[in-house]
Amino acid sequence: MAPNSAPWRKNKTCRNQEWQIKMESLNKKKNALDFAMFLKEIGYSSTARAQDFEWLFDYPSTRPFLKFLASSISSSKNVLSSDEVAQYDAILVYFYC
Description:
mainly alpha; elongated
């Protein structure tokens, strides 16, 4: 039997792949939990559940954007106060009515 085809190497490779899949799944769950908490923080949804957003992290191309979004928006600096919303509504009424 050749050294590269040893059964223990195959098992080690399978274990490494299983470990990678488990880690990716845990990362996806953590990212989804962070995203759901972010939505709650900015007042978008009080009922946001992490499992509803796990699919967003299935695509490697969306992860950087979602992480950027969650890290750059906060309720303290990017959300209008109720007074500002009322002023904005008054402007809309003025221009569109």
